[in-house]
Structures are given as C-alpha cells and as structure tokens.
Design a protein that fits this description.
Its cofactor is a divalent metal cation. InterPro entries: HARBI1_dom (IPR027806). The chain is of the alpha/beta class. The protein is 44% helix and 16% strand. The protein contains ten helices and eight strands. It has helices at residues 6-14, 18-36, 49-61, 125-132, 134-141, 174-187, 189-200, 217-235, 238-243, 250-254, and strands at 69-79, 91-92, 97-106, 112-120, 143-144, 147-148, 150-152, 163-164. α2 (18-36) packs across α8 (217-235) and α7 (189-200) crosses α8 (217-235). It is globular and about 60 Å long.
Length: 257
C-alpha cells in the first residue's frame, strides 16, 4: 500500500514473483484487519475519563474556547475508478468523481480513535454520522458526572448532543465569529491525520488502481489508518506535536480494547 508500483521493487528484493508478493501482502493485511480493526472503533476501555480530561485540557491550552473538546470529526472522499455497475450510487457531485467516503475522529495525541466506512460517495456527512454509531457511543461514554465532552466538526454535522460545529449565518456576533475562528485553528489537526494516511500509504490515494469489487478498498483504507496510528505511537505526529501530547506507546495501543 505504500506506493502503486512497489510490487516490482519487492520482486527484485525478495526474489519472488509479483503475484506471490501480492498474495502475501493481502494475507498480512487480512490478518491485521482481523486482529486490530476493533482499535479503529470508539474504544471505551482506553478512552477513560482521565484520558479524555487530558485531551480536553490540551485542546483548551492550545487556544480553543471550550474546556470539553476531546477530538475532531471529519469525513474524507477517496476517489476511485468508475465502476462498471451502479455508477450513480458512488458518484460524488462535489468532486465530480466516483468515490467512497470515510468518517473519522482524531484525538489530540494524533491517534485516529474512530473510523467508519466505506460509504457511497453520494451520501451526506450528516447521514453517515447517523449510520456510523458514533452518536450512540458518544452518548454512552462522553458523560462523566456533570461534564459533557464533545467532538468538533465542520458545519455539515450540525449541532448534536456531543458534536458541535461552527456558527452559521451571515450575521454572526463578534463572539460567535471569534469562537469559530479559534476552533478552526485547532480543528486543522484532523486534516493532518487524513494527510498522513495518504502520504504514507499512497496506494489508497491512487485513483486509477482503486477498483471497487476487484479490491477490498474499505479494508485497505482501514489498515492504512491503523498503520498510521502505529507510526504515530512510535514516532509521534504533527498533531501530537501541535498539542504537546505524547501518544501512548505501541504496546499500550495494540493491547488496548
């Protein structure tokens, strides 16, 4: 997944045919998905009250006007080849391409703590949010006594019990404008998270080789996100450095949940 033409390089390195290397790679990916995919769902065992308090404190110290923001939610559109069948169901009007969508939440330590998808490129982010199960997980695990933690997202998500978005409208007060501005400055971290996935695992961003029904695109993207988390545990990330939070160790991450 690191680069579209890497199989030819590995053929010379390992002395195996590209078909064999591809089969081995797929088997490893399937094993990782079977063993660790649960780490990409909201992990209430690791995301304890103490951990979420550390997150919210880091976001506030960085300039957010909220004491309760523990992560940032966003969706990404991954362009793919035009499928042979049911093309209209995956056509994304914004990108004007056939695509799949994913939704993720990234924490201030740079770890993707929730990833769902793929969804058809035609679907709205608000619909995906309702289908993802995140609202139910947040309602159950983001309340501690009188504290009500939230995720911050873009206007597409609207206002929810545990998700808030920028103020909308042409006639905003100065306070509302300042709130949205300061939250936008810290929310940029979620874009860094998506960027890291495609930077390290360029194959998932190579549209000509993203072939629906011929490849397991959802599993491929999920494992790219998981391996990005692994890299963050070992080396840190732009997000963790921005918020001044050291991510958990690799051992802690792999044995959580």
């Amino acid at each position: 997944m690191a680069y579209p033409a890497r199989l030819d390089d590995l053929k010379d390195l390992f002395g195996r045919e590209t078909e064999a290397i591809s089969s081995i790679s797929n088997s490893v990916r399937d094993y990782l998905n079977h063993t660790f995919s649960h780490l990409l769902l909201f992990d209430s065992n690791r995301l304890t009250e103490d951990t979420l308090q550390v997150y919210s404190r880091a976001v506030f110290v960085k300039g957010a006007p909220l004491h309760t923001c523990v992560g940032f939610i966003d969706g990404t559109v991954r362009v793919m080849c035009r499928p042979m069948q049911n093309q209209k169901y995956v056509y994304n009007g914004h990108k004007r391409k056939h695509a799949l969508k994913y939704q993720s939440v990234i924490a201030p330590d740079g770890i993707i703590i929730h990833l769902r998808g793929p969804y058809a490129g035609t679907l709205h982010d608000a619909f995906i949010l309702r289908e993802s199960g995140l609202l139910e997980a947040a309602a159950e695990h983001l309340k501690f006594g009188g504290k009500h933690d939230i995720f911050y997202g873009d206007p597409a998500y609207g206002q929810q019990d545990h998700i808030i978005a920028p103020f909308k409208g042409a006639l905003l007060t100065e306070d509302e404008q300042e709130f949205s501005k300061r939250m936008s400055e810290v929310r940029v971290s979620v874009e860094w998270g998506f960027g890291k996935i495609v930077r390290y695992w360029a194959f998932v961003d190579f549209a000509k080789n993203q072939k629906l029904r011929l490849q397991r695109l959802g599993k491929m993207y999920a494992m790219a996100a998981f391996l990005s988390n692994v890299d963050t545990c070992v080396y840190g990330s732009q997000t963790s450095k921005f918020f001044g939070l050291a991510p958990l160790s690799l051992s802690e991450y792999l044995h959580s949940g």
